[in-house]
Amino acid sequence: MDITLARTFLEIVDCGNFVRAAERLHVTQTAVSVRVQSLESQLGRKLFVRNKSGATLTPAGEQFLRYAPLLIQVWERAKHQVAVPPGLRALVAVGAELSLWSPFMLDWLVWMRRSTPQLALRTQVGLRECLMDQVSEGILDLAVLYAPQHRLGLKVELLMKEKLVLVTTAKAKKESAAGDYVYVDWGPDFAAQHNLTFPERANPGTYVGLGPLGLQYILKAGGSGYFRAHAVAPYLRNRRLRLVRGAPEFLYPAYAVYSEGADIKIMAPALAGLRHIAKLQDAPKPRKRPLT
């Protein structure tokens, strides 16, 4: 079966009507209608009831909804494995949010290359919603991200209990001015907690939508802001940054998301590597002994 038909079917279900599905698929409404007719012809059942408010599933459509995502996942996995370079056993496709790549996912990539040289690796950076969609469709075998949505057919595993801490470039005896504060967008949960804790900083002068960018900004220009504890650890050790004493910390855990039907031979080593790196990051760092 043409996988495009299954993708079109799922897009209509997600949008609720043929018009918006056509816009998201970048095709005409006529093309969407033709695809649905073709799919209904192959299945021998009508899948949608169209009305003024949009399109709703028939009982047959409800049944097909259980299998359409699986069809796409199997097709994507087949494409992955056909594309495996000669001499390697299989390919693992993994995506993660940008903030997680340095150092967590980079360390995982090195671990995988050394521990499982028989596997080919394909990695990418993406936004949470896009990564979740790609895991659902089988384009990615695994995604590592913050605050994932729970979706039917996907497993969510806690990897590490990351936290956000308030750091500053100001010296210990001189607190940074209010205008030096940089608000980093860590998502709606952080925003809600942050606004309750710091109502006076509800409208910050500097707003950054990406953690690594905000961190590099204050390292270069000076200031303060909330950042991942693991990301600022090296700068705390070399004293380019310091923790703001008494400031609250916010939990920001990272998760692995993968399909319930994933190939265990591929997923087992990938998950083992993620758990290993997460355990290393959570382990307390040995303190250097003073020189005598």
Description of the structure:
There is one protein chain. The chain is built from eleven helices and 13 strands. It has helices at residues 3-15, 18-25, 29-43, 59-65, 68-82, 101-115, 128-137, 188-197, 211-221, 229-237, 264-282; strands spanning 48-51, 54-57, 90-96, 119-125, 142-146, 154-160, 163-168, 181-184, 206-208, 224-228, 242-243, 250-251, 254-259. Strands 7, 8, 9, 10, 11 and 12 form a six-stranded mixed sheet that branches. It has three domains: 3-66, Orthogonal Bundle (Arc Repressor Mutant, subunit A), CATH 1.10.10.10; 71-160 and 253-282, D-Maltodextrin-Binding Protein, domain 2; 163-251, D-Maltodextrin-Binding Protein, domain 2 (3-Layer(aba) Sandwich), CATH 3.40.190.10. It starts with a helix and ends in a 10-residue tail after the last helix. It is globular. α1 (3-15) packs across α5 (68-82) and α2 (18-25) crosses α3 (29-43). It is of the alpha/beta class and 292 residues long. The model is unreliable at 288-292 (pLDDT under 50).
CATH topology of the largest domain: D-Maltodextrin-Binding Protein, domain 2
**Number of helix segments?**
11
- For the termini, the CA-CA separation is 74 Å
The CATH homologous superfamily of the largest domain corresponds to Periplasmic binding protein-like II
As for the number of domains, it is: 3
